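[Q] Does anyone have a clean structure-token version of this?
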Amino acid sequence: MAKSGVFEGDPPTTAAAKAVELKKELQKLVKSIVDEDDVNLDAIERAQQMLFALKELKLKRTVSLKLRNNHHNQEMVSETVPEEFKCPLSKELMRDPVIIATGQTYDRPFIQKWLKAGNRTCPQTQQVLSHTIVTPNHLIRDMITQWCDNHGINLPNSVQYINDEGLTEADRDHFLSLLGKMSSTLSEQKEAAKELRLLTKQTPSFRSLFGESRDFIPQLLSPLSQSKCESGEVHSDLQEDIITTLLNLSIHDNNKKLVVETPMVISLLMDALRKGTIQTRSNAAAALFTLSALDSNKALIGKSGALKPLIDLLDEGHPLAMKDVASAIFNLCIIHENKVRAVRDGAVRVILEKIANRTHVDELLSILAMLSTNQRAIEEMGELGAVSCLLGIIRETSCARNKENCIAILYTICFNDRSKWKEMREEESINRTISQLARNGTTRAKRKANGILERLNRAVNITHTA
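[A] Here you go.
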């Protein structure tokens, strides 16, 4: 290994062992892909990742060997290297000089390591970086090459730099080219959007690239935002590819905050929920679900009015979209403010209708249980016949979680609406539904069921005494 530390990694023996392990695992994956009747996308993606890893090992070993062969000569002249050819971080001769946002030049591996650690300032000037893109400094590279020739030093041939995510400079250049096409003709927009969708799905590394500059997401969305500003119609396939790409890059944790805080993202997702292909609408809901993993995002999405189109799409009941919509509503309603908004936007009626039709009962009962802490939601449940519906589910389901959610909602109704006591007592006298749950339910279900029974019995005793 070169003492400069430019290519830090495993010794050759360890690298060779890793290569053998990767090849064995790759053989298993390829065999499973070929043998299975259906296409296993997960296996294909893992196989691609292993191919990338093998390629990286090969390139690093080649470069490392070249560095070791030339290291002796470099040590002899290290004292005479001009300061402008040394990396400010490594204090060694730069092999791949790049420029950062402040105009300072560093050796690529060292500045990449600095940025990867979460630093967003220039190491020399301490200025905050407007972006984290690095650009090759061809002038300095040529000057270093000439200096090395004059001093008999053989720098390794230029190789594609591979970062921790397995992306080369060619990959990065291609990514920037695709973003540039999003402001071009319709045919080029469609071509670029389709490829960005594919890249961000199959190669997780491409998702992280969107976090390097605040300009990248607006560039991706430019065809949609332009159509919205001009009140024009956007092509459905172009919209689907862009929204799906937005979903893919939102999966990357470091992108979630950036995506939501990018102007027009939420409004464009809301537009996608209302119109476009059903796949577009479903993927827009999935994107909101993914983004709402952050509590700060939950608040921003709720304030933007996204719950209403989500509830409307849930009301439509398209099978392809139901699960993603329900997941998004559930995540958003974890915070109190969004519960109020969901109830105001008609969530209780829509959810009860779907539950009554036994549609996605598991997910929707969980949402209803969360909403039951809202007084207006309880009143609506009483008006819409929730008691008989929930008691019916307890009788017929074998799912302990669903029983628990049902009895938790009934408990809240019982303690807030005395007009429903009669219906619960009649259920007890005929089916003993609540008593059975008090004996056989989960710990929480037992507690809620016993609470209802005590309330009902106390009411009966008071009536008899009177």
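[Q] Thanks! Anything notable?
[A] The chain has three domains: 12-150, 169-345, 347-466.
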